[in-house]
Amino acid sequence: MSFSLLKQLALAALATSVTAQFQSNVPATTMCGNDNKVILQGTPWLVANSLYGARDMQGSSCTTYQKVQGSRVFFSANTHIANVESTNNVCKGYANVGLIQNLGTTISSIASVPANYQWTRTNNSPFKGNVCFDFIIAPTKGDGSSSAAQELMLWLEWEGGQLPIGWNNDKPVATVELFDTTWKIYEGVNTGNGMTV
């Protein structure tokens, strides 16, 4: 699999308007290792190359931070991963923009999380994956990885037969209407960290 992914995300910090203008003097950077990241000074974001499933990966995946423009972060991913049948539904990793401010905010105090995204993909072989917003909630401030924490993934696009944790033959635990769209809710446990997703 070979593809390039260009994403523009406007992930506003919870206390910041989505129309806020940011600039960062961080130079364009390419990252190919697990948990490589660049903190975008002057913004509420970081860009990371997360390869937590690298043990099941044959190939490579690199993330390139390109620039900050206003309220958008531009980055790309270049991935060359072999399609191995026994692990083709295991997430190998992902390129991402993450918030680094207001992370201890309680859910009840969040009125909205204004955000948008745009992406394009080019490839010369089949692609399996998704584009999503990913939120971690926990009863203890700072807990982003224990089994007490929970992860909410809002899948915006998916291709190639990618399935969410808790798929169970398309038997959602609930279906909800939100913003004129029907969303199926799946729930399961990430066997890598014990977190409910």
Give an overview of the whole structure.
The protein has strands spanning 2-9, 29-31, 36-39, 45-50, 59-69, 72-81, 94-99, 117-123, 129-137, 150-159, 174-178, 181-185. With 197 residues, it is mainly beta. It starts with a strand and ends in a 12-residue tail after the last strand. The strands form 4 sheets. Strands 2-5-6-1-8 form a 5-stranded antiparallel beta sheet, with no helix packed on it.
What is the structure about, briefly put?
With 197 residues, this protein is mostly beta strands. It has strands spanning 2-9, 29-31, 36-39, 45-50, 59-69, 72-81, 94-99, 117-123, 129-137, 150-159, 174-178, 181-185.
Order of helices and strands: EEEEEEEEEEEE
Structural class: mainly beta
Major beta sheet, strand line-up: 2-5-6-1-8
Overall helicity = under 10%
Mean pLDDT: 82
Computed CA radius of gyration, to the nearest angstrom: 17 Å
| Strand segment count | 12
Structure annotation, total helices? 0
Sheet of most strands: 5 strands, antiparallel
- Distance between the ends: 27 Å
The backbone outline, from C-alpha atoms, is globular
Give the strand content.
35-45%
Query: Spans with pLDDT under 50 lasting ≥5 residues?
Result: 1-17
